[in-house]
Amino acid sequence: MLATNLKVLAVALLTIGFYALVANTIPQLESEVPENLALGSDVTAEQLVEAGERVYQGAGGCTACHGLGTRAPNLLTDHAGEGAIGSRCGSRESDKDCKAYLYESLTDPGAYVVDGFESIMPDMRRQLPEDQIWATVAFLQSQGGEVTVTGADLPADEEGGQADAASAPQRSATTDPLQLLSENACLGCHAIDGAGPPIGPSFDAIGARISADRIRRGIIDPDSEIAQGFDAMAGVMPKIFGDQLSAAQLEVLVAFLAGRR
Amino acid sequence: MPDLYALLQAAADGATASYRDFPVIGSRAAVWIAAQVHLMFAAFVLGVPMFAVITELIGIVARDSKYDKLSKEFTRLLVFAYSATALWGAVLVFFLTTLYPRFWTHMTEIFGPSMWVYVGLFFVESFTLYLYYYGWDRWNVGRAKWGHWGLGLLLNVWGTAVMIIANGWLTYMMSPPEGATVAGLPDGVSTWNAIANATWMPINIHRLIANAVFGGSIVAGYAAYRFLAARTDEERAHYDWMGYVGNFIAISTFIVLPFAGYYLGREIYEYNQQMGITMMGGFMSWLWIVQAVLIGVLFLAANYYLWIGMGRIPGAERFMPYTKWMLLILIIGWLVWATPHTMIASRAEMAAMGGSHHPFLGILGVMSAKNTAVNFMILTTFLSFLLYRRANKEPTVSWAQTGTLIEGAMFAVSAGVVLFYGIYGYFVEAIVRIGFSVYQVGAVLACIIGVTVIDIALLRGAKSRGAIRWGQMPERSQYALFVLAVTFTWLMGLMGFARSGIRQHWHVWEIVRDTSASAATPALGYAAWVISACVLIFLSLVAFIFWLGGLAERAVAKGTTIPVPVPATGRGH
Questions:
Q1: A261 — pLDDT class (breaks 50, 70, 90)
Q2: What interface predicted TM-score (ipTM) does this complex get?
Q3: Is the pTM value of this prediction over 0.95?
Q4: For residue A1, what is the nearest residue in chain B, using CA coordinates?
């Protein structure tokens, strides 16, 4: 009976070992935790500006529009002779100081739209927690102005001010592809019907150039494959649409674009 | 012990700490192992009663004592496994309260009353089980027997109720209702809304089926061990038959499981696109290749067991030449299914492949090829069962030849539909191609149902070519049952990691963030070691429990005889 027991044990161990081996042979991918800014009430202006810059250049996806000069006002450089954003933010709306105006621009962007531009900016509370929004405000203030954001503006909860699901705006439920393109600011970069900026590939005849599968991948993971001639724009398109669109909206959009031949 | 007491007290006092450390393996691994081993035992004690009542019913209706004995033996395993389930459940709760107090407070805030109901049902379930098992011989005839069977039915009802309550808690962590916050539920959203969340029902269905699969495979593993340890032909015959029944339950229910999986996957995508993408195309994409490897082993081992088993059935030799072709289909199907497709690849890797997909393997790695492969594997396994069932039977109905031809045509049409849509899928867009899998699955299911119905009618009153020589089974067949049991257990651990891992750094998706040091979701290599540890702990405990059961049985059964399914003389090798 000992021999039988040993054989049973050997079969079990070999089977388990085989699966463990297979799982350890394939590429090892870990899901990283998004960077936690860990901004407390005692945060300094320098720390806020530094954190805000990381958001501006990274997770916020701000550079997708701001800085290109066509879709949205430049923020870090002069715009219409008014200087960088930090020096002009206080005079945009008469009843709002710079801090209030910038916060409004990030959380209710349609409230004030600079002349000559469309209202294409999304409410940043969809993708950024409150403390990162305030850090971004601080960074923008630092561009030619005085930083007035302090630790007292930050939410006091332990989660580092995670986006509050209850106060965050709800997603649009529309399945109208044109409305989706407009709501998600796609037309700020992609031309359609011969009009629009050439920052990303045109949507005209896109269905004839690439497959629906690749269109879907391009929406969800924009950097997975860069369209020919747009290498310089790699990394510009925000990687937020997989989260922002429902499955039905994504499929409607893919079908609509794939049908443009 | 004083340390444990202090930790429990601190948790009860509402300590403000979010996390505490567990020595050596860390808090995450400690909770992971406790939860997974608890779930393995829970799946066993929920799955086994399902077929215990069915076999008891067959015994009552057919007046065949061997089914009654089999059912009682299933239940005896249950009694011992039940206490292990409760023990591991307690370990899990202690770990959660002491190591993750803040998260636990959030859960109790929302689910407190349902936890009291859960405990109450657990009591009722326990006592129903004890009544069911210990009353077996007392209530064994007439109306009392039906009453006893009713207890078995109730046992299933309580067990299912307990499971779906706990499913409400864990699915809330994946798909909390709109408006939920760290502080709890908003006005107008009740505990019931939190339980009946978007992924609750798909998980309920998936687990119900998976429990039967798992229970069947563990019972088959138990029977295999008892077969190898048997000292008499009667014992060997009984455990050979029990192993066959356990394996039949496991494989036949397993074939349905992917459909429940699709439903769950669809609901996850509907709830949150990003979660679905993480699951299928993000950092977890390689997990499905590992899953394909495991399922390929399951198909091969299950078919191998059936083909060897045909050696003890008179008349089966006429079907044996087909097995090599079936093996070929299974292996090709396995290779296609395990071919990677959309993976996270670096720019250098993409450049080396000449695109995001491999130039040759990319063609096989798409869903058209994979769906075709898996449907052919299911059809082949069903054919194996059919040939096994027919092996010693000679139909006597007048329409036997026509019936067999119709069955063959149904197989051919089903395979044709699967192949046609598999090839056609390469020429249409993804959105159209996704719909093709429904036609493929529909064709296979229609074939399985149609052929089963015809075959039952066709073999009614069939002549026997000779009785199955139960017990005359080579020992290697029993090792195939062990491989199946180990693989099902490992697969359960892998899928547990998938379900839990897609929440990434959230205890409750986008509500309660994991801010602990181990918030990052580990890679598959590390996960595989934890899963392997869980499987080893579970199987070791199961072996110990079964050994204890054997001791008790020997003490009681001295001098009694066992009702057996036609014992054969001698052993076949």
A1: confident
A2: 0.88
A3: no
A4: B229
